[in-house]
Specification:
single chain, mainly alpha, Cytochrome Bc1 Complex, Chain D, domain 2, 12 helices, binds heme C
Length: about 210
């Protein structure tokens, strides 16, 4: 009996120590289908590739969506659906998009309400400096999660393989949909090595929760 009580207390303690809002919110959103967007996200099969918490994609080449800007999400789903965005692995998603505009709105509303919690110390690293030196922060924000426009993406915590592939595609013009052109011009003096350092840094901005 005593052992049970002690281990119960320990579980409660470790739970409390993790009791940052992010973990609680994610667990809450993950299981709680009362949110119309969360339910649609699950019912329409987005979970299969992007993870049931939208933060743990089935492959490291696939993007995390949790906490992304609503307007950016809507624009990207439509661009992928219409074939305007056809770089990278968009093709695997295109065929599965059986959502109408109203559903896209609800899913985007829910996804954008999820938190992105930054590890503050990472904002003083070399990656952070490069991100500012190369002007990325002007559009994406110094913390990579406060873009200057709502149709611009948040990048903090994103999978590095995914981010690197997108940067290369935008530089080469393979990804030229939406507002990609505004970024492309700035990449002339950004090398693949710079991109790799930045992609690593972006991923290191958040911690894995589960
Ligand atoms: C079969 C796998 C698959 C399914 C199912 C899927 N996606 Fe995707 N999705 C992807 C891949 C892969 C990409 C990235 C394409 C690339 O490499 O450029 C993507 C990209 C996205 C993006 C753009 C992300 C960004 O940062 O630019 C959004 C938003 C998105 N998906 C939302 C959804 C939603 C909502 C659903 C459900 C209606 C869904 N996806 C279903 C695989 C999938
Ligand atoms: C002038 C504004 C601007 C600047 C400067 C800029 N970006 Fe972007 N970036 C964008 C926009 C806009 C998009 C999305 C394009 C679209 O609409 O599809 C984007 C997309 C991205 C993506 C893909 C995000 C995703 O989820 O698919 C990455 C990664 C990225 N930028 C990294 C960078 C890095 C690194 C730098 C600096 C070297 C940089 N950006 C500089 C505007 C900018």
């Amino acid at each position: 009996m005593r052992i049970i009580i002690v281990s119960f207390a320990m579980i409660m303690m470790s739970f409390n120590s993790m009791a940052d809002s992010q973990l609680k919110n994610l667990v809450d959103y993950k299981v709680n289908k009362q949110y119309p967007g969360a339910k649609l996200y699950a019912d329409r099969g987005c979970v299969a590739c992007h993870g049931d918490d939208a933060n743990t994609p089935s492959q490291p080449q696939y993007p995390k969506l949790a906490g992304q800007n609503k307007d950016y999400i809507i624009a990207q789903i439509n661009d992928i659906k219409n074939g305007l965005r056809n770089n990278g692995r968009s093709i695997v998603m295109r065929g599965t998009i059986i959502v109408d505009q109203n559903e896209i709105d609800k899913i985007a509303e829910w996804l954008s309400s999820l938190p992105i919690d930054i590890i503050e110390e990472q904002l003083n690293s070399d990656g952070a400096k490069l991100f500012q030196d190369k002007s990325c922060s002007i559009c994406h924000g110094i913390d990579a999660k406060s873009p200057s426009l709502s149709v611009y993406p948040k990048l903090a915590g994103q999978n590095k393989i995914y981010s690197l592939a997108q940067m290369k595609d935008i530089k080469s013009g393979k990804r030229n949909s939406g507002n990609s052109a505004t970024m492309q011009g700035l990449l002339y003096d950004v090398t693949t090595r710079d991109m790799a350092i930045i992609a690593n840094w972006l991923e290191s901005l958040t911690k894995d929760l589960m």
